[in-house]
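Protein modeling request. Please complete all fields; requests missing the sequence field cannot be processed.
Requester role: graduate student
Desired output: 3D structure, token encoding
Chains: 1
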Amino acid sequence: MPDINFLFNCWLKDPENENIFSGILRTLLSERKFEDVLVVFADASAYLQNKFFFSKIDALLSLKRYSEASVEIDKLSDNSSLKSYYSAVLLYLGGQAESAMNALNKAAEQAQLEDKGHLLKARLHYIKSEMKPALSCLEKISDSSRDAEYFGLSALLALDLGNIKLAKSSAEKSLKLSQNQFDALLALASIFVSELELSQASVIIEKCLTLQPKSGRSWSVKGQVSLFNRLYDIAEQDFRSALIYMPDHIGTWHLLAWNYYLLGRLDQAEEAFKHALALDNAFGESYGGLAVIAAVKGRIDECNHYIKLAFKLNKRSFSAEYAKALVEQSEGNTNGAENRVKGLLAQSSHLSDFTYAQLVARVVESVGND
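Delivered output (370 residues):
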């Protein structure tokens, strides 16, 4: 990223230079200095203001000054692809994701959708967990428009699809372009958690929460850091904070349940698993978690019922396998239980190249270093 002071000095000598002015705006936006963007924009010539008006709109939107942004957007031609895009952005930021998608689809029908619009459509599909359409939208973006936001969203998408190598490389590309790109930071923090690189994950997730303190996913990742550091009371607070902003996130309800399980608060663990089940009764790990709780409480018939339901939905249900080991242990089949657990630990984590046994070993090692 160019030195901002150097760019300002160059601009003073050549105040009509488009490339220098563009560099100043890009640098300030990447550093999230949105108020400075508006100040610089006001000092620019009418020609540069007209040429780079979209930077002013970007700054106003980032500052949540939506009314002012709307005034600027209304100045654009009705046939402008940017007007279609920014109108959709306003709808999205106002919590009207479906209306935003409709506006973008209409723009696409009228051949008014450019790369920024495809990127927003990709984000809207991603929010709805529509991975293939999200990928399709990203593929339509030209190489010259593949900026920090593009690589950041690509990193999150790759992460959720289990392609950790691509997620990491995309995040790194994004952060080279902008050190504060939120999606890239969140993806990288999640990857470090999956690899139990907890110190690195902690630093990055704190940065995420500084950038977006109401990000439920960031709070959930922070909870995982606390959980793996055996700070269970703090983890509970983190997961509860996450659920304020994304109350229907099943994964966080599961994490909260397992945190309660490790605290020995089985009733609350059971309640959390049941809450997850109410959100989606076709998710096997919810039944598997309930099977574990039932096994620990000695309700073996109920446990076996939940195990059956879990395996029906997911033949490789980790929690259901663990519940079976607990049942075998309770029946005196120690060898069977131990072999089942060994089999579980030999499996590879879906979010890293480590087996569960290797991850457990890293946790044990960290305990020994305390």
